[in-house]
Amino acid sequence: PAAALRRAWREPRAALLEPRYTPLVAACLCLAEGGVNLWVILRVPYTEIDWKAYMQEVEGFVNGTLDYTQLKGDTGPLVYPAGFVYIFLGLYYATGRGSDIRLAQYLFAGLYLLNLLLVFRIYCRTNKVPPYVFFFMCCASYRIHSIFVLRLFNDPVAMAILFLAINLFLEEHWSWGCLLFSLAVSVKMNILLFAPGLLFLLLQRFGLLGCIPKLCICALLQVALGLPFLLVNPVGYLTRSFDLGRQFQFKWTVNWRFLPEEVFQNRIFHATLLLAHLSGLGLFALHRWHSSKENILTLLKDPAKRKPASPRMTVNNILWQAWIVFILFSSNFLGVCCSRSLHYQFYVWYFHTLPYLLWCTPTTKLAHMPKVLLLGVIELCWNTYPSTVCSSLSLHICHGLILLQLWYGTAPPPVSHSPPRSRKPTAMSKKAQ
């Protein structure tokens, strides 16, 4: 660390532009973020939105209610899976039945820092993003700080668990990663936007038969967490916690404000978005995620029986890890672009992935400024309250530009279907690093 500091002091420009300095910049930013979160908690008034409702929903469970349709708060019925209930039950008791808001804010500030460390660890492993970009990802985002420490939403909890799962995937701990992924889904269903990418990776890594045990891990955890409620009212639990057809209120939408409300609520519009989402996933799976010249159905085969497309790469190889992250982040981003509605707290669904999505493609010196500008416009759109025709259109334009860059700026790398278990870097990985 001392040597890295000395090099950064002598080469400040390199410390801002070269990804190898990410650990140093990340450490400095995490320290700064501790102070920023403390300042926000002490100086900016807390805003009650969902915390009280969360505590009321949990209190119903504490009082013995196991029929999910009977669990509700001031903002309506409980619409999250069972993992949410258990995690917020812990917060319920830790904060004196939800009454100690200040303590809850400090706990969420700790969650913010943990989430940031997990995100930085992913960026350190992929070695793609210049460190100066992380200043925009941290201290510059008012909305993200608000979601964590001023609103106490459950979205950050789900995303922190998800980033922990991704770290486990990068370490080749796929079973543990699937367990944590399923836990994140049990907190909030938006994590399923990463599921198509994860399924693709599991098939690529293990083949059809090999990925079935991993999928069973995901399913069994959902059953175990929901069992007390499934035994009482299984239909009620499934329809409430995994309601894919839930209608959203037009007044809260960030991304579709430019549409008439009758179009926003129209089922044909919802079906069109679903079709666009599935089409986007199919195109990316066929032409951007699939790395072999063989038919994509070869992913169903045992990896040992596939014809290798190129020299094998180790699990420590930076290209393999970057590709895992690209597939997961782009899978989620496609879902965000096609969402029926985005509310303000949903910004955390993809905020920390934006630097990777923007800088994972080759970037010339002149291209840095437009990418930073895109980050700024997206931040401005999410900080416009209430949303306007201009802000929602601008958000879609930014999303469209990122999608175009991902499509035209990326191509499947020459990775093998199944990286070996050896952890010693190959000559190829050394060259990549």
Automatic annotation (TrEMBL):
Q: Where in the cell is it found?
A: Endoplasmic reticulum membrane
Keywords in alphabetical order: Endoplasmic reticulum, Glycosyltransferase, Membrane, Transferase, Transmembrane, Transmembrane helix
Query: What name does UniProt use for this protein?
Result: Dol-P-Man:Man(5)GlcNAc(2)-PP-Dol alpha-1,3-mannosyltransferase
Q: In which pathway does it act?
A: Protein modification; protein glycosylation
Q: What is the annotated role of this protein in its UniProt record?
A: Dol-P-Man:Man(5)GlcNAc(2)-PP-Dol alpha-1,3-mannosyltransferase that operates in the biosynthetic pathway of dolichol-linked oligosaccharides, the glycan precursors employed in protein asparagine (N)-glycosylation. The assembly of dolichol-linked oligosaccharides begins on the cytosolic side of the endoplasmic reticulum membrane and finishes in its lumen. The sequential addition of sugars to dolichol pyrophosphate produces dolichol-linked oligosaccharides containing fourteen sugars, including two GlcNAcs, nine mannoses and three glucoses.
A GO cellular component annotated for this chain's UniProt record is: endoplasmic reticulum membrane
Q: Which domain of life is it from?
A: Eukaryota
Q: What is its EC number?
A: 2.4.1.258
InterPro entries given for it?
Answer: Glycosyltransferase_ALG3
Organism of origin: Dasyornis broadbenti
Catalysed reactions listed for this entry: an alpha-D-Man-(1->2)-alpha-D-Man-(1->2)-alpha-D-Man-(1->3)-[alpha-D-Man-(1->6)]-beta-D-Man-(1->4)-beta-D-GlcNAc-(1->4)-alpha-D-GlcNAc-diphospho-di-trans,poly-cis-dolichol + a di-trans,poly-cis-dolichyl beta-D-mannosyl phosphate = an alpha-D-Man-(1->2)-alpha-D-Man-(1->2)-alpha-D-Man-(1->3)-[alpha-D-Man-(1->3)-alpha-D-Man-(1->6)]-beta-D-Man-(1->4)-beta-D-GlcNAc-(1->4)-alpha-D-GlcNAc-diphospho-di-trans,poly-cis-dolichol + a di-trans,poly-cis-dolichyl phosphate + H(+)
A Gene Ontology molecular function term for this protein is: dol-P-Man:Man(5)GlcNAc(2)-PP-Dol alpha-1,3-mannosyltransferase activity
Name the Pfam families for this protein: ALG3
Tell me where it mainly resides: endoplasmic reticulum
The record describes its membrane topology as: Multi-pass membrane protein
Its transmembrane ranges are 78-94, 106-123, 152-170, 176-203, 215-232, 268-286, 315-335
- Which region ranges are annotated with the description Disordered? 413-433
